């Protein structure tokens, strides 16, 4: 795999690269002449901790990417992705993961000042550092925020020592290749979450996907039936009253995501081996329908307020139930 690290001045991207090189058998890919508009300040004071033997240098981002493409099964890391056009090409490859590293600005200034002091240079004042940082991140068309914004994993490096950072990175295991390509559970659960986004129910957005032999049979989300006003346009008076949890459930006009997916598929197409993915654990009334149509397994991601009752019914009906949790992505705090 190839991990691209991006982030602001002294956020710790070189420390993360250093960890991958030392502990996870990665090697560093670099560009010879840096195209970064901010390279002068940012780069010179960093990156000396990584020894020369672990580095390979390239003329262009294209040749770097070509090199990694031919050897994608080995582990590579780069901190040299400077612009959005280059990033577009990297992100097209299935072995590439973009990771951003950020840290509180006060902490980054402290790290920066320490580096200057080590070289017996006068460190910049905090205000000067902040202005410089803003320019580097947000300058129109070339600011690094354009890159960090697209990261699949966003690390928040508030650790105060390298040991602490290393311990956190060890637990996280950035090199887990499930981050590159979702497994089947992840894939179908994300489709269920996508379906949930279409929901118009005022109570709660839920999405569901029915699958057999790794093929989608049907999808569903909750809301009022066909030809009725959408729930969020006042279609269901009960949902719009804003009462908590299961209050007035029997007067609700909204079909649940599971019901819609089951109705859409029909019993004929469900058959033995069908799996129901739902981002919320099915309620009791859905559970009995799930049992009746012959679903073999239910996978959900978030709990609901009647999980144990639903679990008991599913068990009695001989249907497997399991909770799925996806790998930690998005914003992750790196602390000891
Ligand atoms: Zn509703
Ligand atoms: Zn309702
Ligand atoms: Zn339900």
Task: Characterise the protein shown here.
The chain is an alpha/beta fold. It contains 14 helices and twelve strands. It has helices at 13-23, 39-44, 61-70, 84-91, 105-118, 126-138, 145-148, 162-172, 184-196, 237-240, 257-265, 267-270, 284-293, 307-316, and strands at 2-7, 27-31, 55-58, 76-78, 96-102, 153-156, 207-212, 215-221, 275-280, 297-302, 320-323, 330-333. Strands 3-2-4-1-5-6-12 form a seven-stranded parallel beta sheet. The protein is elongated, with a radius of gyration of 25 Å. The protein starts with a strand and ends with a strand. The mean pLDDT is 90. The site of one zinc ion has 7 residues, from loops. The site of one zinc ion (ZN) has 7 residues, from helix 10.
Shape: elongated
- Uncertain ranges: none
DSSP strand content: 15-25%
Number of helical stretches of at least 4 residues = 14
Number of strands: 12
InterPro entries: APOBEC/CMP_deaminase_Zn-bd, CMP_dCMP_dom, Cytidine_deaminase-like, dCMP_deaminase-rel, Deoxycytidylate_deaminase_dom, P-loop_NTPase
Organism: Aspergillus cavernicola
Family: Belongs to the cytidine and deoxycytidylate deaminase family.
Enzyme class: hydrolase
